[in-house]
Structures are given as C-alpha cells and as structure tokens.
Amino acid sequence: MENQPVKPQARTSRRRAPATRTQLDRQDWVEMAVDVLSEEGIAGLRVEVLAKRCGVTKGSFYWHFRDRQDLIDAVLEHWKTGRIRDIEKMTSVAPGNERAQLHHAIEVYGASRNRKGISIELAVRDWARHDTQAAAIVESVDLYRLECTRRLFVAAGLSDAEAKSRSLLLYACVFGLSLMHYEPFDNNLADLKQRIAEHIVAN
Q1: Is 38:83 a contact under the CB 8 Å cutoff?
Q2: Of all residues in the chain, what percent are helix, strand and coil, respectively (each to 5)?
Q3: What is the dihedral of CA 67, 69, 72, 77, to 10 degrees?
Q4: Model's pTM, two decimal places?
Q5: What are the residue ranges spanned by the domains of the chain?
Q6: Closest Cα to residue 124, out of 111, 139, 113, 109?
Q7: Distance of alpha carbon 35 from alpha carbon 99, whole angstroms
Q8: Residues 135-150: pLDDT tens digits?
Q9: What number of CA atoms fall less than 13 Å from residue 200's CA on the CB side?
Q10: Spatial CA neighbour of 32 closest among 62, 55, 13
C-alpha cells in the first residue's frame, strides 16, 4: 500500500482579543492632571502628555473637556474644593475644645508625612506667581483658611485683632516648616514643635 501524503493540520486561527481600552471619566483626567502638576508644574499640563500617561488617545480627552483651559479650570476648582473641605473638617469642633483643635491643626499641617500634598500645594503656588486665575484661587483659599482659624481663636477667648495675628502666624509656621530642612536643628523635633504650638495657641 502506497504511503499517502500526510495532510498538514489546519492551523487554528487565534485572533488576539482587542486590547481593553482604558475608560476614563472627567474626574480621572483631573486627578491625573493634579499628579502631573505636582511633578512637572503647569508646563506639564499638556493634552499629549496626559493622554500618553493615561494610555489613551487625545480623543478621550476632548470627549470630556472643551480644551486645555477647561482642564485647567477643573484642576483649580478641584484643588480649591479639596482645601476648603479639609480646613472645614480641621476646624470643626465642639465648643470648649478650640485650643486642642488648634494644636491638632498645627500638628497635622506641620507634619511632613504627606509629601504629595505638599508638592501639590507648592506647585499651585508657583503657578499662581505667573497666572492671575491661579493667584485668585490661591488667595481665596488662603483667606478662607485664615478665617476658619481666626474663628477658633476668637471662640477660645482671644480678641479679634489677636485672633487674626495668631491665625496668620499659624499658617506662616506650618507652611514654613513644609519648605525648610530643619531636622538636624534639634534632636527632639516633637518637643520643639510642641513648644512652637504652645506659643501660637497660648492665652
């Protein structure tokens, strides 16, 4: 019997499943933009850069935003809303506990644990040095912060004038701490910060 030629087996067609495209909503874009802002400053907020970082096309961006300015408006509003929410939470306290809450605010804002938050704050403030829109947002947040702590100092028994000076001193202190490298200055930083807080909050 003659050997019959062996027919090659038909290759099973294996078509790759189309890659799942990342679905981003408007808030995802804003949060990614804030991350880029903290790392690269306002110059990094370019549609091409964000789309590449998100792994999507520019068309996805324009589905959610009219243009780059629309994104910038959203980033500033996101930052402002978050900062106002934080300070309202930080200064909400039952009557009689105002001084303890002021101590807590100094401890939290003066800590260096949240490096990302500090980077975002500095990036927005640097942006505000060159942009009137950003400057107006930063000013509104600063005034709101000062007013919230001023009310705490007044509730703790200080005069309005003294409360204003203490409120400004508080923020000058905590923002200064976020900018300075002072760790080698004292071998007991916790005690040092406690004494500073006591000076700010004292009667």
Answers
A1: no
A2: 70, 0, 30
A3: -100
A4: 0.83
A5: 75-201
A6: 139
A7: 34
A8: 999 999 999 999 999 9
A9: 30
A10: 55
